[in-house]
Amino acid sequence: MVENEDRVLTNLECKLGEQLLVITQATQLNLLGQVFRPVFCGTIKDVQEGHITLSPVIIKMVNAPYYECPFPLSIPLEQVVAFSTEVPCDMAFPLT
Length: 96
What we know:
The chain is built from one helix and eight strands. By secondary structure, it is mostly beta strands. The strands form two sheets. Strands 1, 4, 5, 6, 7 and 8 form a six-stranded antiparallel β-sheet that branches. It has a two-stranded antiparallel sheet with strand order 2-3. A hairpin with a 2-residue loop joins β2 and β3.
């Protein structure tokens, strides 16, 4: 398992400055009074053991699919269930 985590960290470190779509484990989250599905897309600013930081980051909300978060978001790697560098942040897709 540690080998896989190291491989993921190495791959993400090589992609600093690129856009990344991230989906986390929670079925829904609450941030700044808004409830939304855990789908984020942003530029990889930092990769550390245990977390990645995206900034700027777009939170894909049903009522505001291109909401740009006013601060960087650090996401714990153990909460990430899927990620992709192949999906552009400006792509629209259904969230319901």
